[in-house]
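Researcher: I'm preparing a figure for a lab meeting and need a structural model of a single chain. I don't have an experimental structure, so a prediction will have to do for now. The sequence is pasted below. Please return the structure as tokens so I can convert it later.
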Amino acid sequence: MSVRSESVARNPASKPDTTEQNPAVADDAAPYPGAGYAWYVVGVLMLAYTISFIDRQILNLLVGPIKRDLGISDTEMSLLAGLAFALFYTFLGLPIGRMVDKRSRRTIIAVGIVVWSLFTAACGLATKFWHLFLARVGVGVGEAALSPAAYSLVADYFPPNRMGTAMGVYNMGIFVGSGLAYIFGGLVIGMVSGTEHMVLPVVGEVFAWQVVFFVVGLPGILVALLMFTVREPIRRGLKAVRQADGTMKAEDVPIGEVIRYIGANASAVLCHNIGFALLALVGYGVATWLPSFFIRVHGWTPAEIGFAFGIVQLTAGVIGVIGGGWLGDVLKARGHADGRLRVGMMAAVLGVPFAVGMPMVEDGNLALALSIGSTLFFTMCFGAAPAAIAEIMPNQMRGQASAVYLFIVNLIGLGLGPTAVALATDFIFMDENMVGYSLALIGGIALPISALVLWLGCGPYRRSLDKVKAYTA
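Model: Understood. Here is the structure written out token by token.
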């Protein structure tokens, strides 16, 4: 059982050492931070995530003008939307995850926000494919700092029976950001339509679509400053060692032990990560190519589909992510230790008819209605999945385990999802107007496999819950 340090024993509510070089161990029964402030922290983190997804997703509405002005194909466009961002986002998440377990999480997030905001603005300076590719890599580098640190913070601010809901609210930023990106992007495109070039102070003459990146990128720096209103909570569930003076201090867990622990729980971790990654693959594929599907097949303008799909993201997406996190908490409270994985299974199974049917219908309004169902179910996993991985890992390993989860989910989901749809369009159907069939094909294959993998992971996941209790005892 964890033991308080002398200072914490005298005052359980005392502020922790924010340098976190070797934080004092708190009794896990000590009170959590006040609910009001904890939800404020989640709100700040959600705002940061919202900004990150505006910067990340705005590219999806600019496919047409970017392809035209830079002379690139659907496959190259998918590399900009997926692989260019995901490559460094996923790989850099691993060392950042280790920093999260040892350093100030709020500082890591603040630095990341500044980096991705500046590189988003740098996308507006691109005049060649590789210019834009490198700028998107920079966006990924900055955003790699956010979620591992945010997941770790939320897990220390909320007790386990409310962690899923809190994770859902944080991940709501994905769909608020995506929705605003589609709506705002559509409005801007509508305003600059018919204008090939614009002249800006300092920068000079640019393509009209480049202005969008300046407008959405630079305000993020203000959010970085807001992060310094967030206090570091006491870390809970730490493996501790007794010092010479009799006090307990958090053990500095070497990377080898982290690897061995994750390896001992490999079945649970891999089934969790791959199962949710396949859900993400379909979700990111749809998010990237659905606007182009409506523009090419149903004749909608970018402004029309931007507003319509933005509303879908802001409603069905938000309901899905919060509802999925809440449902995982409910199932766990009712005795289903693997309840958060069950949420993913449910989302995958129920999402199949919407994923396959939405691109097949001839009426654009009906297709949009079906996209509401697909968005609702695809988003349910985003509250349940991070809470599930935090639940089976000791505190000193949560940042690293979250980074591994994000590595797999984003490499498969974000890195391959948009590209899988584009490859099917370019090389199987060989017609850009068949992008809807590509969406149906990818969804029809990936979602049933996702449900199966998550089902296979339920038993190992329950055993991992017992292992984490034994590790920190």
